[in-house]
Amino acid sequence: MKLVKLDSLSETAQWTYRSWRKGYPVSNNLKDWVPITEFRPMDVLLRKISESWARWRFLSPFFASHGLHIYHMEEGPPAKPPKYPLSQHTGTDIWPWARHAFETEEDLSFDFYNAVRVWPARDDNGHEVIIRLASGASEVTDELRAFHRLNTPKARSDPRNRTLPVLKYLNFDGMVFVVMPRWATEPFGPFVTFSTISELFHLAESFFEGLEFLHENRIAHRDIYHTNTVMNVICKPGAQQGNLRVKGEVKYAFIDFDACLTLPEDADIDAVRSEREMRNQMAKLKLKPGMCNPFKDDVLCLTFEAEGMLRVAEGSIPEVGQFFDWIWGCDYEETPSPTIVLQKLHQLRESLSEEELNQPPAGKFWDRGRIVPFN
């Protein structure tokens, strides 16, 4: 009988017996929690989804003992919220909870089942949270190191820390799960609309501030992509909603640090070289496999996302286009740091009048030289 270790002797005995009786359905090896990347044929996809749900369902009593009630998928995807407790979010929820901009419990359904290592839950107080497997039993991951570094009192007190706070660390048989508030809307997308060009600037500045903070703490994200960013609102999926980007109310954050590189805090980031992590954004940027500086890659990936939103202002403010052309015109080794990018952004914003900043955007987003118009 394999020993399944938990924090107490009684829990260890309980879960060792339960795991043995169920045939050890949960591996503590991170390599067995692989994201689903192939969606055909359908029968294989459904089998993989079922296997993932079986793990989380098996662990549900463990999470419930910590006041976390996981979403269920008894009827197949998407995962649906528990019937109890009811959601307690409101439209004006304060940090760290997301604002309520959905209409029904069904709007909370979770369809990122392909992530495998991530599952939604609701705490005893009715708040929506995310449980994420951050480390396996065999070794401490850079992701877990990043969570620890980003959640010290000093780190959390820095307003540039654009990451979700860890509410709990839970240990199960050598694995470490982190619990964070659920923010569920992509900020680099057209569904939550912008009222002014100033709000577009705030989006870009917020994330470059966040990247500056990550890099100061010697963390390279290595997978900056629109699906790996969130804002503090849970919306009805696919519905356009406005008035949610107001400065002072909206918060933005990076998520998904599974590819990150967490270096010693005295590391010289200009001298760092590592094998490039070939995630989604790399193909769009035409970056090739091989050695790279991951901190420079981060800047380029975030620039790509920021350009898609902020450059819609180029028609009335040509300097916005010139700003992005300046970054893309740099040789790779001369890629500006987030601090330099921020300085340029601040200078550009300060050069604009209130009238210019308060203009409505000219379209949804910018894509390969054209502004995509509103419907």
UniProtKB/TrEMBL annotation:
GO terms for molecular function: kinase activity. This is Other/AgaK1 protein kinase. Gene3D superfamilies: Transferase(Phosphotransferase) domain 1. It comes from the Eukaryota. SUPFAM superfamilies: Protein kinase-like (PK-like) (SSF56112). It comes from Ephemerocybe angulata. Keywords: Kinase, Transferase.
